[in-house]
Every structure is written in structure tokens, then in C-alpha cells.
Design a protein that fits this description.
3-stranded antiparallel sheet; about 130 residues; 3 strands; 7 helices; mainly alpha
Amino acid sequence: MPIKIPHFKHCYRDASSKHHEFIEADGELIHKIEDQDEFYKTFGFTIDMAKAGVLPDEFIWEEYIKDSVTKYTACLQMHIIEYLRKHSDTFTRKYGDQYEDWIAAHAEARTAKGELCFTCKAKSFCSKRRSD
């Protein structure tokens, strides 16, 4: 039976304010993002990108979401899960025992599809993190 992973979504509770960022799991608020720099770093966004004028949301859109048939929405989810594992007590309490299964399922899916991440801009970042 396939492993069911909730859909984690980065959102703004007040659409007019980007100062209050949250993460939802299947529509349920589970984490308030306190350190935006740390959150975006999770996806491979760097200080150099910011200095070059790239906005974090634009980077995530281009790298993970736009043309999602050929992009890496599963990887986006795994990055959010990684962030939550490190920064959210609510996530740990609610999903902590499922984390290892999700990581294994994601690795299996990547392998089955021929290592989809080969063109991902964050590949070296992700590979380094997997060896940490």
C-alpha cells in the first residue's frame, strides 16, 4: 500500500501581509514560520541569490512549481517536511513517527523515475544535506 503523505503548503494567513507566514498540512495550520531566511534556505535559496535581486518566492516558483509536470513538486514537499522536522514541535508530535517512511518513499519515487533531480538547481544543496 502506498504511503500517504499529507500535502504541506506554505501560505500567508493575511494575503496582504507577507510578514505572517505559515505551513499547513491538508488545510490545518501546523507551524508559524519565525525565521524566513532559514525557511527559504531549506529550498536552496542563498544570500547570493538575494543580493542578485532574486526573491525567494520567485525562486521556489521557478524551481519547484512552474510547469510542475517537469518540475519537482515532490521535492518541494520533502524540503518543507525537512524544515518542519527541524523547526516544528507540532509536526514532530503529529508526524514524527512517519518521517523516515516519507523519506524512504520519496527516495524510491526519485529512483523509479530515473533520478528526476538531475536538472534541479538545488541538487548539490540537497545532496549535501542528505549526507549531513
